[in-house]
Amino acid sequence: MFLSVGQTPREDIIDDMLENLDLPIEALEIGALDRLSQAEINDFKVRPGETSIVTRLSDGSDIVVSKPRIAERMAKIAAAFQPNEFDLVVILSTGLFRDFESTCPTVNAQRAMESTVISLAAHGSAVGLIQPLEQQIGELDIPALAPYKVTASYAADGNKRLLASALVDLSDSEIIVLNSVSFTEADRQTVAKASGKPVVLARRIVVSAIRLLLHGTHPVAMPGVPAEFLEKLQRLTPRERQVLSLVAEGLSNKAIARQLGISPKTVEIHRSNVMTKMEVTSSNALIRMVVAAGHP
Q: Residue ranges of the HTH luxR-type domain (predicted)?
């Protein structure tokens, strides 16, 4: 189940992800603005003092909505899912800085991206973020990033002029993160060619998380993934692979336990086994390994 901020369908994102996954997935969608009247949709527009997030309506137009109020609506939708109703729930938005309570295994795109950025910054890299909206530069607030060198700029997906302008702002960055699932592989290639620097794409991070979680319950092909990473992954049990993916999102043992329906103590044991078998000594090192595997 893909849960998005706007209206469905979102073939522009989901079809691309499914193509990269190359798996027999039955993809279902729910949009937070589905089946709402125009007046109800307008009521979600940003009010003074609120942070913002941009999303797409079914007619192809974009709308900037209130981040806290749309996040609350999405949280209620996710909380209503029944235990094991879906093999996987994907919160298909970066920018929603909150956890989503779910009794189904869940990929939270923002948590996955946040843990990626933190792990890269903690490794000593100067990280540049490209946000989809200009006002989101001032709204960016990730307390865990405060000690690190992180610079933000903005560009709309597909806009080569704005992407080029953003690179001027991020000239001192060593790694660039396209921090929205709206950015495409074409955008990543444009930025990588113009900057000559590694570029992390949100969609690839989410795809990597989906692969790892599904790999815990179903045999999953992982085309393009380095052989060394696959060899280490094969050492893990199905449950350990699920734990690995959720650790890579930066989730606590208690949050992982809730999603998988096991005790925090059991998660702690699985987590220790994952670190040993993947030959890493920290969660940041594990996250960097997962990022590298998803960006060959």
A: 229-294
